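Two records follow; treat each independently.
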Amino acid sequence: MTNTPTYEIETKFLKTAMLYSARSEARYYLQTVAIFKRKEFIRIVATNGHILFCAMQKIEPDYNNHYEKDFDKLIPLDELKRALTGYNKNFASTLRLDMTPGNPDIVLNGFSFKETEGTYPDITRIIPENISNEVAQFDTKYLDVLQKSCKALEVSTNSSKIYHNGNNPALISFGLENCFALFMPVRPGAVHNVKDTTIVSQIKDIAGCTGPAPQYPNKTKSAA
C-alpha cells in the first residue's frame, strides 16, 4: 500500500498569498499560488510582477524519518478560493495538501484539481542584497493590499514596516520571522514632475496660507 504524503499548509499564508497573485490572463502562470517544497521546508509564494509575498513552513519527516521528493506546484487561484470556501479559522488553521504518487491531480482540503502548467519566476533573483533606505514611490493601490495582508496574517497594521530601497524592491516586514513581501517602486507620473517649492506653493494657496485669510463662520453664540 502506497502512503499518500500530506502537508499541512498554514491557511493565513494561503489567504495572504492570494492578494499578491496576478489577475490578468496575459501571465496565466501568475494567476496562482506557488508551493515549493525543498527537503524539510515548504514555501508559499505569489506575485503579480509588481508585488510579491513569500512565506516558509518547516515540515516534519514521515514515519521512516525521511522527506518525500521535492516538488513545485502552481495552485490556480480559482481552485484555491474554492478550497477555502466555508473555511472557519476557529476550527482549523491549516489546509491539507495531499500528494498521491503517480496522480497528476492536486488534492487540497478534499478538492481535486489540475495544477497550472508553466515555469514560475525565480524569486531569488529579486531579493535585495541590502537596504538603502532611499525613499521611493509606490502605486497607491497596493496600500490596500498591505492592510489586507496584516488582517490575513492576524497582525496589527502598525506591525508592518516598509524598508525603502530606492529603485530596488522595497522589503515589507510584518513583524513575523517566516514571511515577507516585496513592493516594486514606480516612477511618479508626469503631473508630479514639478519642483518641491511649486508643490508647497500650490498647497498653501489651497489651504489659504497666502492671500486674504479665509473667513470662517463665527459659531460663538451672542449673549441674549
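The next record belongs to a different protein.
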Amino acid sequence: MRNLPLNLPNEGFYNELVSLINKYSKESESNTPDCILATYLEQCLLAFNFAIKMRDLYAQPSAYPYKQSPIPNTYDPLSPDSTSLKKD
C-alpha cells in the first residue's frame, strides 16, 4: 500500500493509518492523499520519540557517556536505521 519511496519502520501501522484516514475522510478538508497524511503523522511520531530521547539526555547527561549517546550524530528520520531511536 505504500505509495511513497520512504522506508518507515512499521509497514502495518502505516497501512492501518492510511485506512483510518480514508475511513473517516480526514484527507478531504486538505485535499491531500491519505498516504501523504499517514507519512506525515508517522514522521511526527518519529520526531516525538527523538525529542523524548533528547529530553532524557538533557535531564540526565551523566547517564549517557559521550560515545554511547542515544542520539546518533547524523540522525536522518527517513533512513532505514531510524528505528534505532525506538525505546528498548
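Discussion point: The helical segments are 11-23, 34-59. How would you locate this feature using only the C-alpha cell line?
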